[in-house]
Amino acid sequence: MIDRKSLISRHNPVYEHTKTGDPLSVGNGGFCVTVDFTGLQSFPQTLFPLCTMSDWGWHGYPDAPQDDSLLRKTFYDTYGRKVGYPTDERGQERLFKGLRQNLHRFNLGNVRLGLDGAEPEDYVGVRQELSLWEGIITSAFTVQGKPVLVQTLAHPDKDALCVRIESDSGFRQENRKLRVQLSFPYGSHKKGAGDFSHPAGHTTRVENSGNNGLVIRRVMDKTRYSAAVRLDTGMDAQFDGVHTITFTGKGPKLELSIRFAPELEDLPETFEQSKNACAGFWETYWNEGAAIDFSEALDPRSQELERRIVLSQYLSAIQCRGNLPPSETGLTCNSWYGKFHLEMHYWHCGYFGLWNRTKELEKSLSYYVKILPTARSIAAEQGYKGARWPKMCDPTGYNSPSSIGVLLVWQQPHPIMLAELCYRRTKNRDFLVQYRDVVIESAEFMASFLHIQDNGGAVLGPPVIPAQERFDPREVLNPGFEVEYFRWGLKQANLWLTRLGEPPRPDFEDSAERLSKPPVHEGVYIAHEGCNQTFTEPGFRTDHPSMLAMLGMLPGRGIDRRVMSRTLDRVLASWDTESLWGWDFPLMAMTAVRLGRLEDGINLLLMNLAKNTYRANGHNPQGDREDLPLYLPGNGGLLLAVGMMAGGWDDDSGACGFPANKDWTIKAEGFCRYI
């Protein structure tokens, strides 16, 4: 058996500086707090936004447009039928941008260590460590000659930040030096998710709970939420009458627990109770599920790969286990206004199915059941059957207008894929029933979206924008990846019906069989039919090399392996690698592994490029893009590829996805097979 505590603990991030470019976070899957070297959010306006965010924390500006039916649509010829999509903002900029920016996630509150006049350079002897095994950050430093020790954690079941601060200087009100302050910003669609310069736009009301605690009522336009604070005996709280509460104490220790909720609930537990609950949760979490250990591997890169795997699991666990699909920067800060992209749901959370954590995947999978009526209306408005899933959305499920997003379709089979990954673990009939409509109506849209030609063949597009977002939607016909994903999804929907004892749908099977074969030119797969310049036109060999996903992400049962191997070689030789995204590296690795090119799979996972770097805290920033200082689809994609390599896949003939030599000796346990 793997010594899991040693495996996890040897990758604890440890900092001995005051730089906040790689901040640490604590969370419970649907609630996350990011802190600086003080263990709190003492310097939020430095190198990285320090936010407190949740799955339920959404805000809209009071004057924001809400009626997407007012959008002027651009009509695309669809085999003699005009179908409208909101792709053009010209002449409707306010409406278009307003619907994109609202709703947005917001920063619930800022908790900082108050020390008059202290700047980051005044803190010396800094040592901060995140105990991954316990989910606790310990920060030690000396400031103005006083040693301070801070412990920071998030309650595993309640959206509460819990802090213990110890210092010989104490927290006396009379010295007015060392103290803790809780401040509330106005909501913002920007990366930092909070606006502290707009105090008149929201209200904060503080009430005494009568039980060693405070209740804080927040009103921010139509958004209302509460914060409940447990106070230690002897602790004082002073409200400035605007948006800041200052906490001081009489002794050398201050313990503060702050629970955030949409509606008032009980006071949080004591720090010690929360600490015990946190440590207990994380020990159980790490001992359950799958694990992979590279301690016996001789390749010098193996420990870096292990570090990335462990930290990616932690980052995913603290902010991708909620009841909504994750945003691309999770609950750390806002990307695309905090909205989530459903085409990324697979890359965020698909790995849960391989790492024996299907209960975590089922949480966000339930979102499709919730928004099924909205998805039906999207399809019906466009003249299609079934349910068309949105691309960029918030909890309501409404699709944000976009020059690209509304024309994507590769998110359409995702619910079928994610449901299948869950079902394969439990084989539970109740689960089949629960997701029947999601699976079948996803397939109904796919079948109706295809066009049957005079020769009897079925084609996909135009108009469509493929996963490789580089083409005019009016010209895209049969993008290979989408064709194969639709084919797989249609057949899988019939398998779902068979499991339920229902007759398979002839239209699903017929559509799958009629679909064109993926396009080939000069012995390699190309982006879409007629795009013979895929590998010669500079603008076409950028972004995601999605044709590789046909054999890798997908089982590729109709794919010519020799053609795919040549295609992988062509991508490696000619693609603009700087334009790749974090999930492209595991995508390519999965293709290489299915082809038996195991060394290439390792090399692709560890390719030395800006968008494939993993910072000390596990963040996968997308190069120098300021809006993506972390990118969780990269972390999730890494875990997906490693899960497939360690657990195998349906037609692997018992092969392992790691090279069979001492350089890559591994110990793996608990993995489930991939499709």
Keywords for this entry:
Beta-galactosidase, Chain A, domain 5; nine-stranded antiparallel sheet; four-stranded antiparallel sheet; 16 helices
Note down, in words, how this protein is organized.
This protein is α+β, with helices and mostly antiparallel strands. The chain has a domain at 15-61 and 103-286: putative glycoside hydrolase family protein from bacillus halodurans (Beta-galactosidase, Chain A, domain 5, Distorted Sandwich). Helices cover 28% and strands 20% of the residues. It contains 16 helices and 30 strands. The protein has a nine-stranded antiparallel sheet with strand order 1-10-11-12-13-22-19-18-17, with helices on one face. A four-stranded antiparallel sheet has the order 9-14-21-20, with no helix packed on it. A three-stranded antiparallel sheet has the order 2-3-4, with helices on one face. A hairpin with a 5-residue loop joins strand 26 (451-452) and strand 27. It is globular. 53% of the residues are buried. The mean pLDDT is 95.
Q: Could you tell me the strand content as a percent range?
A: 15-25%
Query: What is the CATH top level name of the domain at 15-61 and 103-286?
Result: Mainly Beta
Number of strands: 30
Q: Main beta sheet: strand number and arrangement?
A: 9 strands, antiparallel
Q: List the uncertain runs.
A: none
Helical residue percent?
Answer: 25-40%
CATH architecture of the domain at 15-61 and 103-286: Distorted Sandwich
Q: Gap between N and C termini, in Å?
A: 26 Å
Kindly identify the CATH topology of the domain at 15-61 and 103-286. Answer: Beta-galactosidase, Chain A, domain 5
Instruction: Specify the CATH homologous superfamily of the domain at 15-61 and 103-286.
Output: putative glycoside hydrolase family protein from bacillus halodurans
Instruction: Going across the biggest sheet, name each strand in turn.
Output: 1-10-11-12-13-22-19-18-17
Structural class: alpha+beta
What sort of overall outline do the alpha carbons produce when their principal axes are compared? Answer: globular
